[in-house]
Amino acid sequence: MRLVPHEELAARHGITHSYAQTMRMVAEGEFPKPIRIGRRNYWLERELNQFIAELVADRDGLPRPRVEIVEAWSRALPHEEPAENKEGVENELYKARPERS
To answer: Residue 89 burial (CB < 10 Å; 0-12/13-18/19+)?
Structure first.
């Protein structure tokens, strides 16, 4: 079970909402609820993957995937730490991009 801090939502899951917007969405039931540890909030990675899979299914008019399927899918994904680009911002795509000459 992996916990994801808010700062990592954009780098790993493409969720770029501000913290305030994310918490508004949680309050409205539009985003998974976080787990509070101390003064910080964390999200379960499997719940984020389920949330994204449900959005895709809703968009495509497909039935929502079962949790077991999404968990198996997320285990198959590579879980590398994001690389840092030249500006120091974490970005997995930068790591895969070839260097410009």
So the answer is: exposed
